[in-house]
UniProtKB/TrEMBL annotation:
Domain Kinesin motor: 1-340
Domain of life: Eukaryota
Ranges in a coiled coil: none
Recorded family membership: Belongs to the TRAFAC class myosin-kinesin ATPase superfamily. Kinesin family.
Annotated ATP binding sites: G93, Q94, T95, N96, S97, G98, K99, T100
Predominant location category: cytoplasm
Keywords of this entry: ATP-binding, Cytoplasm, Cytoskeleton, Microtubule, Motor protein, Nucleotide-binding
Pfam family, one: Kinesin
UniProt GO molecular function: ATP binding; microtubule binding; microtubule motor activity
GO BP: microtubule-based movement
UniProt-recorded name of the protein: Kinesin-like protein
Taxonomic source organism: Gadus morhua
Localization of this protein: Cytoplasm, Cytoskeleton
One cellular component (GO) term of this entry: microtubule
């Protein structure tokens, strides 16, 4: 239930790389080890240790491709979501380390598609092939920018600015469940529709050029797939959610030489990541109070952190000696996250409409059985449902050509009386119709009609 993996990206800037080694064949998983040179002046101050080793479920080195990342990380989560469990995959790491590349992908080639498009493709392929279940899928795309939530899937505006997007507010109900008011949840019947929604949301995302990243995503984004599955004819439905989260990059303000809007963004990003860290620390130390409500991001991801969800965290680092401090802090943070225990449960419930119909039927047959066993006439009136059922029974009985056919009414006197009344009404209406039928026949001078026997 707890997983954390690490991806290492090559740096795009001319750098002197830190010496590191990756080992994916350890009995307990994998590890990455940094060898810190003694004379490292501009980065990490290295007084005592030379080697720092961090253990993970899996470490992906620079040669790892998007397909491998998808198969190892996202596919198992997608399988659980299809089976009715909630899932979350989130990417955490310093700016320019490859979070957006991992979650959404790169635009250079088709092979650069990230976890979201690959997961959508996988989910819809499964949905098309599985004839034992009927699925409906919906999508939402939420952005948290400067501590305000925005709906990225708003279709009303064509070329819109972020401030024109609808803002989303968080409401807590009495059981501490959150409701996202004003977040549109769009139906997406197939992969193409889902990809169009992803594209629409991405065009609305807040990006900016920073010193380190030409297209730095300056917000936290949560792409959510809502899945509802049921077997045909069954009243039991499975509802599951998959959050795919691209966090804004942690960054050092002085290192980035930020000012103006970028500085304001960086402060909000750092504050919200600090609150995320507080939640993670409280959870990993099993404290009584977990400060989810301190930030919008932790409120929205409440279930993913220590709740009903299978959560996988991807930490991204950049192996450049100027980033060593950030890489170490990312690894330490990831190891804390791995201490959190989530409890994922199957989200199965009965559809209320189908459930009521089934309970009505059961209730009726139990009443019939009870009346049969006790032999006591019941006091209350027949219900509308019972009357309708009797009318169908009488109709079937009259239409049945089998002379042995019977009307099974049990011992309920009210039902027996009702059936007699029904039969009387039918008989009377048939008799009253007869003169009309006869005159019609005579008028038409219908050949081969034995009028005498018909009248008799
Ligand atoms: N595995 C990779 N292979 C090739 N290019 C990569 C890889 N990872 C990242 N990149 C490239 O590195 C640059 C930075 O990556 P990305 O934008 O994903 O970083 P980020 O962590 O999202 O940064 P920020 O927090 O600033 O948004 C991009 O140009 C991206 O295409
Ligand atoms: Mg990004």
């Amino acid at each position: 239930n707890k997983r954390q993996v690490l991806t290492i990206t090559s740096d795009l800037m001319p750098v002197i790389q830190v010496v590191y080694s990756v080992n994916n064949d350890e009995a307990a998983g994998a590890s990455v080890e940094f060898v810190v040179p003694k004379d490292l002046g501009d980065g990490y101050v290295n007084n005592k240790l030379e080697n720092y080793k961090f253990r993970f479920r899996r470490v992906f080195d620079q040669t790892a491709g998007q397909e491998e990342i998808f198969e190892t990380i996202a596919q198992p989560v997608a399988d659980r979501v299809l089976a009715g469990y909630n899932g979350t995959i989130f990417a955490y790491g310093q700016t320019n380390s490859g979070k957006t590349f991992t979650i959404t992908g790169g635009a250079r080639s088709y092979g650069d598609r990230g976890i979201i498009p690959r997961t959508l493709s996988y989910l819809y392929q499964h949905i098309i092939q599985d004839s034992t279940m009927v699925y409906t899928t919906h999508i939402s795309y939420l952005e948290i920018y400067n501590n305000v939530c925005y709906d990225l899937l708003d279709r009303q505006l064509e070329a819109c600015r972020l401030e024109d997007l609808p803002t989303v507010t968080i409401m807590h109900d009495s059981e501490q469940n959150i409701q996202l008011r004003n977040l549109s949840i769009q139906q997406s019947a197939n992969e193409e529709e889902a990809l169009n929604l992803l594209f629409l949301g991405d065009t609305h995302r807040m990006t900016a050029e920073t010193l380190l990243n030409k297209a730095s995503t300056r917000s936290h984004c949560i792409f959510t797939v809502y899945l509802c599955g049921r077997q045909p004819g069954s009243a039991t439905v499975r509802r599951s959610k998959l959050h795919l989260v691209d966090l804004a990059g942690s960054e050092r303000v002085n290192k980035m030489a930020l000012g103006g809007q970028l500085l304001t963004e960086a402060k909000y990003i750092n504050v919200s990541l600090h609150y995320l860290e507080q939640v993670i620390i409280s959870l990993s130390e099993s404290r009584a109070h977990i400060p989810y409500r301190n930030s919008l991001m932790t409120s929205v991801l409440r279930d993913s952190l220590g709740g009903n969800c299978m959560t996988t965290m991807i930490s991204t680092i950049s192996v450049d000696k100027t980033n060593l401090k950030e890489s170490m802090s990312t690894c330490r943070f990831a190891q804390r996250v791995a201490l959190i225990k989530n409890e994922a449960v199957l989200n199965e419930e009965e559809d209320p409409v189908l459930l009521i119909a089934r309970l009505k039927r059961e209730n009726q047959s139990l009443r019939d059985e009870l009346a049969m066993v006790t032999g006591e006439p019941r006091q209350e009136q027949l219900t509308q449902y019972e009357i309708q059922k009797l009318e169908v029974q009488v109709k079937d009985f009259l239409e049945d050509t089998d002379p042995e056919a019977t009307l099974a009414l049990g011992t309920d006197l009210q039902k027996i009386r009702r059936c007699f009344t029904l039969l009387k009404v039918l008989s009377l209406s048939a008799t009253q119709c007869l003169p009309t039928v006869l005159s019609q026949l005579i008028r038409d001078k219908a050949p081969n009609v034995d009028l005498y026997s018909t009248a008799r």
